[in-house]
Design goal:
The chain is an all-alpha fold. The chain has seven helices and no strands. 65% of the residues lie in helices and 0% in strands.
Length: 161
């Protein structure tokens, strides 16, 4: 039973098992979704920078395009450019919360394809398995469905895709 020290539960929301903890985490709830969106976008950007610019030990766009052609994604220039651009520019858009849904959808499609390329290697990412692309697919699909949220440029301009 709530006391005057227990923060009230929102309508339709269950009460907390340990009411004292609610005072610790409820103030941070509005920031949880933006943290996921920003972290996901910010983590995609360096992967795109590797493929596009050769940054962070990457090989650059020409090698990326060659790699895609070598693995059967023809024309390599198209697929290499799309993947590098989706990771770099899409990651920036997701982190900023601008055109969040289409950027996250494009990145989720990319991860779905990546997942299929790793299925035959088992589950664990350390052995080249599908664990990592699957996690990325779920996170990016959730962002595509939910959108940028409260602390996004989409919300600031009052328009979402």
């Amino acid at each position: 039973m709530p006391t005057d020290m227990t923060p009230p539960a929102a309508p339709g929301r269950p009460g907390t098992i340990c009411p004292a903890l609610a005072r610790l985490y409820r103030p941070f709830e509005p920031f949880a979704w933006p943290a996921i969106r920003i972290a996901a976008g910010a983590c995609l950007v360096p992967h795109g920078a590797q493929k596009m610019f050769g940054a962070f030990g990457g090989r650059g766009l020409a090698a990326t395009m060659e790699g895609f052609a070598r693995t059967g994604f023809e024309p390599g220039w198209l697929w290499g450019s799309l993947v590098a651009g989706t990771e770099f520019f899409g990651g920036l858009l997701i982190a900023l919360g601008l055109l969040t849904r289409p950027a996250a959808f494009a990145a989720a499609v990319l991860m779905a394809v990546a997942l299929t390329r790793h299925l035959d290697r088992g589950f664990f990412w350390g052995q080249g398995g599908w664990e990592y692309p699957a996690m990325w697919l779920v996170v990016l699909a959730a962002i595509a469905v939910r959108g940028g949220g409260r602390f996004s440029l989409d919300r600031a301009i009052g328009r979402e895709f």
